[in-house]
Amino acid sequence: MRVDRRHLLLGAGLIGAGAAGLWLRPAAGEDGEIARGTLARMIPERIGPYRSSAAIGLVMPPESEVARTAYSDMLMRLYQPATGATIMMAAVAGADAGPGLGVHEPESCYPAAGFTFAPLGQVPLPAPLPQGAVARLSVAVRGNRRELILYWVRVGTHFPSDAMGQRVALLKDNLAGKVPATRLFRLSRLVPPGESDTAGIAQLTAFNRMLLASLSGSARHVLLGKS
User: Fold this and answer.
1) In this structure, are residues 108 and 118 in contact, taking their beta carbons and an 8 Å threshold?
2) Residues 6+ apart with CB under 8 A from 134
3) How far is residue 74's CA from residue 93's CA, in Å, rounded to a whole number?
């Protein structure tokens, strides 16, 4: 098996820097852990033509000690328009001393629930997120259920586009003596038989834009960090 030298060098750097980080004793950031119920207060129940209702049918990781200790707060909701498809939302705030939010990411929790999972690409995130920040698009399929997923991750002030970017962002902050705040925000929508993915992607993208625009200043700070 051929091993890419760049990956070896990066891996060695991560290991060495991680060991150094143990001596730095990073301190938690000011917008890190939040109290249970904070996300429910911060994220509006009404967003444009959508109204929230109890969350039913959302795919989440199996109950375990790792899953429970990974987050300090979590919110799950359904958003229903007067007409059209319902949007499922999950927002997660990481715990400062937890194992990370990997268990809650779609590429982990959907396969754990029996779905096949495939990335579809990325879409740019609007202001007030930093230029270059992107959301990831994916599709999960189980039997006749096809679900489109749009999600983004924040690590401190970074919005990484992939898992390696998340590890690098975490490492940078640890080496600077900080435990960065971590957030995961996921939207998804079922695709009816015969419908293309295009309409669903457009709806998820538009809803994400409306939700971000609807946040108060304090909610933006909790969810998005300092602008």
Assistant:
1) no
2) 122, 123, 124, 125, 152, 159, 161
3) 6
pLDDT, tens digit, for every residue of 44-70? 999 999 999 877 778 877 666 666 777
Residue 79 backbone dihedrals phi, psi, to 5 degrees: -120, 120
CA dihedral 19, 167, 215, 54 (to 10 degrees): -110
Range of the domain at 180: 5-224
Contacts of 214 by beta carbon, 8 Å cutoff, 6+ apart: 44, 47, 48
Compute the distance between CA of residue 141 and CA of residue 110 in angstroms, rounded to an integer. Answer: 9
Please check whether residue 187 is in contact with residue 150, taking contact to mean a CB–CB distance below 8 angstroms. yes
Instruction: Give the tens place of pLDDT for each residue, 121-169.
Output: 999 999 888 888 999 999 999 999 999 999 999 988 889 888 888 888 8
Number of domain units in the chain = 1
| Backbone angles phi and psi of 189, in degrees to 5 | -155, 135
Q: Do 7 and 155 touch, CB atoms closer than 8 A?
A: no
